[in-house]
Specification:
With 361 residues, the chain is an alpha+beta fold. It contains eight helices and 13 strands.
């Protein structure tokens, strides 16, 4: 018997009305309900970018907090454009989009970097949609948009992130977007880059570490070594600040690639640019910032680059088909024409690539 109660049963405390009410689930599906989810100043935290090494697709994720309520926001960026915007009642769910069954790389972002990358992707999407409405409006009639509420979601996300309203320009995402004025060089650091050819079904890619103050002309030499190409071939970079090429006079609006550093056109994990070598198109993405490397190096990769005789994706596919039956009389001619003798499409040797990089000096 308790010396305090003296055997008396404690009086029952009345249950509060609040505890009797079942807590309603957080509905994040309908856009018109989004403004009701968060009230007051928005705090942005847990910002990350992650993606698969062999795809030009990344997910920007973060936690939005107002008062005592938090939600997760997931922004899928595909080829520099916003493709999906989703909210998650459990913030951690926004960080697990690509982790289920995929090998992904992930890097933290500052809130400023997250806002900048979301804004760039929103602008690219808005510009492309404006171009379609102005130039080929009949495309809008061919089928229903799988994400018809994406513009509404974009507007609300802009408000939460404090991004200014934007009046789109009717241009394609591949066109040279503004601004053309280059930012000043940032403090020198190291970049871990994922570089992959855009077209083959079996990904051909390299993971490299380079200095941020390398010029785009110098980066071209590094990429030529990484993919075993002649560095004298024509090449061009497409960036958020316009085009840069070895022969700027042949492309209207381009500037020379030795006039800009890599760190001026991409600055943080998730940022991307396009690299063209002859008729082969590549994408380049920063995976993470690293310690300043003494020299460029190759960390990983898969598959050999197409032989020099393969001028485009179609000829490369013909070569792969011929390699499946190399003793066929017709295929023998193709192998000779397309540089297929001794070529192994699955070959990759990191040490060989590093030896080529070391010879760059």
């Amino acid at each position: 018997m308790s010396p305090v109660s003296g055997g008396r049963k404690p009086a029952k405390r009345p249950k509060s009305r609040r505890s009797l009410r079942p807590r309603p689930p957080l509905d994040v599906a309908r856009v018109e309900r989004w403004p009701k989810l968060l009230h007051g100043p928005i705090e942005l935290s847990d910002c990350v970018v992650h993606g698969q090494v062999d795809q030009d697709l990344v997910v920007l994720a973060a936690k939005l907090t107002a008062g005592k309520r938090s939600v997760g926001v997931e922004v899928v960026v595909n080829d520099r454009e916003v493709d999906v915007i989703e909210l998650h009642a459990v913030p951690e769910d926004a960080l697990a989009v690509l982790r289920n069954g995929f090998e992904v790389t992930e890097a933290p972002l500052t809130p400023e970097e997250f806002r900048s990358q979301v804004e760039s992707a929103l602008i690219a999407k808005a510009d492309r949609d404006a171009w379609i409405r102005e130039r080929v409006p009949e495309l809008l009639k061919l089928g229903t948009d799988p994400r018809p509420d994406l513009p509404e979601r974009a507007v609300q996300l802009r408000r939460w992130l404090g991004l200014p309203a934007y009046e789109p320009l009717p241009r394609m995402s591949s066109a040279d977007p503004l601004p053309l004025v280059l930012p000043p060089p940032v403090p020198v650091t190291g970049f871990r880059l994922a570089v992959a050819l855009a077209e083959p079904d079996d990904a051909i890619w390299r993971r490299l570490e380079v200095r941020s103050d390398v010029t785009l002309a110098g980066l071209h030499r590094i990429l030529a070594a990484a993919f075993d190409r002649d560095e004298r071939e024509y090449h061009r970079f497409e960036t958020a600040y316009g085009g840069f090429s070895v022969d700027a006079q042949s492309c209207e609006g381009d500037r020379f690639d030795d006039e800009v550093t890599l760190g001026q056109v991409i600055t943080s994990p998730g940022h991307r640019l396009v690299y063209e070598a002859e008729s082969w198109r590549h994408w380049i993405r920063i995976e993470r910032l690293v310690a300043l490397p003494e020299a460029p190096s190759c960390l990983d990769g898969e598959r050999a680059a197409p032989p020099a005789a393969c001028e485009d994706h179609q000829s490369y596919e013909m070569l792969l088909e011929a390699l499946r039956d190399p003793y066929d009389e017709e295929n023998e001619g193709l192998l000779e024409e397309l540089g297929g003798y001794g070529f192994d499409p699955e070959w990759f040797d990191k040490e060989v690539v590093d030896e080529r990089l070391a010879r760059l000096g």
